[in-house]
Amino acid sequence: MPAAPKKYLVTALAWLLAALFLAPYLEMVITAVRPADELRDNGYLPRHFAWHNFVAVWTDTTIGTNLKVSLLVAGGSTLLTLLVALPAAYYTARMKFRGRTAYLLLVLVTQMFQPTALQVGLAREFSSLDMMDSDLTLILANSAFSLAFAVWILSAYISSIPAELEEAAMIDGTGRVGALFKVTLPLALPGVVTCVIFTFITAWNEFVMGLILVNSPSKQPLTVGIDAMIGAYHPQWNYMFAASLVAIVPVVILFAAIERHVVAGLTAGSVK
Asked: Quick check: is 125 in a domain?
């Protein structure tokens, strides 16, 4: 096949694939601006566009408060996971101690448990500690389930960095902690970014823990707040889709902010 037609064919297939992925989001936008009396119409486009749905979802529901809770929980879980996983990953990557392999396997085994299956035990534990209905409870629970993945990813990245770089820095007078933050951590930035993305999105999309561990509507995360719009007889589809579009924005901003670090990590070492 000549180069020019092949290029056009690949471009057309790429646009078709992009359209397939974007079609659900387009449906979300269309439903979000439908008036309530047109939600069951057969037409794909509404006869009137109810842009006030985006205003009403903030004034008539608790979505604004739920959004703040989700930002707090996702951000707090990400920060706590990195603070705990980074020293653990560094120690397992640099120090050879007895039981190191067993420790890493034990950490990996904890990742195999389904969070949903542990909710009853978590609820009883936090209830005995009088920590139910709290943002801190969601932060601790989400961090616990993301910690194993973060330790493994960071340990693998740090292990791939030559220890001689840290030794050279320590010979120049930098301590081990200084070598970690000045030498190793910048080189392991792609691994840190991977952990940030995984932990933040996992906590942001978490539904079951927010539903079981928190009872007050004003303290529930955004996923539970959107689910509450499904009533017994009259689901508020326009509000649900408007709130779902709002829920996408923080994740898009996160990817836009750290995308260059992800690309840098994927292409590191490809050009000499």
From this structure: yes
Residue with tokens 């836009």: 256
CATH of the domain at 225: 1.10.3720.10
Instruction: Determine, yes or no, domain membership for 40.
Output: no
Residue 8 lies in a domain: no
What's the pLDDT tens digit per position in 124-154? Answer: 888 888 888 888 999 998 998 888 888 888 8
Please tell me the distance from the alpha carbon of residue 27 to that of residue 24, in angstroms, as a whole number: 5
Distance, CA of 92 to CA of 95 (rounded, Å) = 6
Q: Structure tokens of 215?
A: 């009872």
Phi-psi map region of 220: left, alpha, beta (phi>0 left; psi -120 to 50 alpha): beta
In contact, 185 and 192? CB cutoff 8 Å: yes
For the segment 30-48, what is each residue's pLDDT rounded down to a tens digit? 888 888 777 777 777 777 7
Query: Please, are residues 154 and 185 in contact by the beta-carbon 8 Å criterion?
Result: no
Question: What's the pTM value of the predicted model, to 2 decimals?
Answer: 0.80
How many domains does the chain fold into? 1
